[in-house]
Amino acid sequence: MFIIGERINGSFQDIARAIREQDPRPVQAWVRKQEAAGARYLDLNTGPAAREPLKAMRWLVEVAQEASTLSLSLDSSNYEVIEAGLEVCRRPALINSVPAEEPKMQCVFPLAKKYKAAVIGLTMNERGIPKDAESRLALAMELVLAADSCGLSPDDLYLDPLVLPCNVGQNHGPEVMQTLRQIKLLSNPPPRTVVGLSNISQGTGNRQLINRTFAVMAVACGLDAAIADATDGQLMEAVATARIIMNLDIYCDSYVELYRKQNTVHWI
Ligand code: THG
């Protein structure tokens, strides 16, 4: 499982201020910090308050690319904002995200082809987030079929079963785990899976413990990627260890260090 650094998000006050004042320093500081901590992608989200979201996304992409060569995940439900970011991306990006709604899929998948981007598909539609794994899987299949009909390879599709805070959606936890396991049976090659990890602990105490416990359980269910706090050292160590136990990486005494450096060393 690899980490998509969550921190460049306008819902954090320092990033909201940086966007407002066009001050690149806090953004670049978080780019470097997340990269050093072992993030493989950087999620960029202008936040709900950005007055000119197209301009803000373009600016975030340009600032991030000046500080790092990491790939970018463009996080918005507004596809004009996504395309504004894609236009200035130097490397193939990840479009975050599209729900299983026909008109939106017909907009986003061709956009992904045009810019050679991968896509995160959400297992939700006009009626919201389903309660059980079975209904999430039905929406996952709709995403797989729509992506395929647009010529997008299944391994460029990341499916997100949508994690809800455990203090409001406790019954969703086992359904998300079940969905993660069963998504791998939908196609060959299978779609990839991703979650917004920190959602699980929003509004709870002991956030880091809840995040890392969820993360290791999800690795056991085959999770491929998480939008998460890459600078949480204990989370990164727990994920590296879960990968060893699942036989996804070769055990060596320095595996925790190697996981952090996975962007620069050859990693199986
Ligand atoms: N799936 C996909 N994309 C996503 C999500 C998802 N993008 C956004 C989000 N969920 C993942 N990113 C975050 C970023 C921050 C937090 C949670 C998820 C977070 N923020 C603090 C909070 O709300 O308490 C902010 C605290 C502060 O302001 O300091 O927890 O699920 N595809």
CATH classification, class level: Alpha Beta
Structural class: alpha/beta
Distance between the termini: 11 Å
- Ligand set: (6S)-5,6,7,8-tetrahydrofolate
State the total count of DSSP E strands. Answer: 8
Backbone CA Rg: 18 Å
What series of H and E elements makes up the topology?
EHHEHEHEHEHEHEHEHH
pLDDT averaged over residues: 96
CATH superfamily: Dihydropteroate synthase-like
Please, how many domains?
1
Described by strand count, sense and barrel closure, the largest sheet is: 8 strands, parallel, barrel
Might you state the CATH topology name?
TIM Barrel
Strands of the widest sheet, in order across it, are 1-2-3-4-5-6-7-8
So, CATH architecture? Answer: Alpha-Beta Barrel
The portion of residues assigned to helices is: 40-55%
Low confidence ranges: none
C-alpha geometry: globular
Percent of residues in beta strands: 15-25%
Number of helices: 10
What labels describe this entry?
268 residues, binds (6S)-5,6,7,8-tetrahydrofolate, globular, alpha/beta, 10 helices, eight-stranded parallel beta barrel, TIM Barrel
Written description of the protein model:
- With 268 residues, the protein is α/β, with parallel strands linked by helices.
- It has a single domain (2-264), classed as TIM Barrel (Alpha-Beta Barrel), CATH 3.20.20.20.
- Helices cover 46% and strands 16% of the residues.
- It has 10 helices and 8 strands.
- The chain has an 8-stranded parallel β-barrel with strand order 1-2-3-4-5-6-7-8, surrounded by 5 helices.
- Helix 1 crosses helix 2 (24-37).
- The protein is globular.
- It starts with a strand and ends in an 8-residue tail after the last helix.
- The relative contact order is 0.12.
- (6S)-5,6,7,8-tetrahydrofolate (THG) is lined by residues 6, 9, 11-12, 75, 96-97, 120, 160, 162-163, 196, 198-199, 202, 227.
